[in-house]
């Protein structure tokens, strides 16, 4: 699907509406399939007390409910800003292959959001003061993976 500015205009309006609603940050998102909006979302971090309630995440959850699937293959996502690492991961997990965005991660950093800092942490090999990430007790957690793999073999 080719880029259509009317869908970005909707995402931008959702972001602007969120500035006055106070639900969260100035971020909006629209998910389109077959040239139809199937879901939209805006940042709801503050109203939901949920740090994962970004516009893209909210829209992806709604799209999954509308389509009754976790696989959003064939959908296109329009978002008012470059997706943060969490949203980017969710987009990839949802099998969305095309994303159009407005503002950059640098634009978000300039108004106080940490997207760019998280990308820098990832680029630095997950090293630094952002997060202490440490593996322990794999022998306790691996059996669930083995059981899942065995279950999948019997199902397919």
Task: Give a verbal description of the structure.
This is Guanine deaminase. GO terms for molecular function: guanosine deaminase activity; zinc ion binding. The chain is of the alpha+beta class. The protein has helices at residues 5-21, 45-48, 55-67, 85-93, 105-110, 115-123, 138-155, and strands spanning 28-33, 36-42, 75-81, 98-103. It has a four-stranded mixed β-sheet with strand order 2-1-3-4.
If you average the pLDDT, what whole number results? 94
Give the N-terminus to C-terminus distance in angstroms.
33 Å
* Named CATH architecture: 3-Layer(aba) Sandwich
Number of domains: 1
Number of strands: 4
Q: Return the CATH topology.
A: Cytidine Deaminase, domain 2
Which bin fits the share of residues in helices? Answer: 40-55%
Please name the defining characteristics of this protein.
156 residues; Cytidine Deaminase, domain 2; 49% helix; alpha+beta; single chain; 7 helices
Kindly summarize this structure in a few lines.
This protein is of the alpha+beta class and 156 residues long. The chain has seven helices and four strands; from the N terminus they run H-E-E-H-H-E-H-E-H-H-H.
Write the layout of secondary structure elements.
Blueprint: H1 5-21, E1 28-33, E2 36-42, H2 45-48, H3 55-67, E3 75-81, H4 85-93, E4 98-103, H5 105-110, H6 115-123, H7 138-155
Parallel strand pairs: 3-4
Antiparallel strand pairs: 1-2, 1-3
């Amino acid at each position: 699907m080719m880029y259509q500015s009317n869908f970005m205009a909707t995402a931008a309006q959702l972001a602007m509406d969120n500035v006055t609603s106070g639900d969260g940050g100035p971020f909006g998102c629209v998910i389109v399939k077959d040239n139809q909006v199937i879901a939209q979302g805006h940042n709801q971090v503050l109203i939901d007390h949920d740090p994962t309630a970004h516009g893209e995440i909210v829209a992806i959850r709604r799209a999954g409910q509308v389509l009754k699937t976790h696989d959003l293959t064939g959908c296109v996502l329009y978002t008012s800003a470059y997706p943060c690492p969490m949203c980017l991961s969710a987009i990839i997990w949802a099998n969305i292959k095309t994303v159009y965005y407005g503002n950059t991660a640098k634009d978000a950093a300039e108004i106080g959001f940490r997207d760019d800092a998280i990308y820098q942490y990832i680029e630095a090999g997950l090293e630094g003061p952002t997060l202490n990430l440490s593996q322990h007790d794999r022998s306790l957690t691996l059996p669930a993976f083995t059981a899942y793999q065995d279950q999948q073999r019997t199902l397919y």
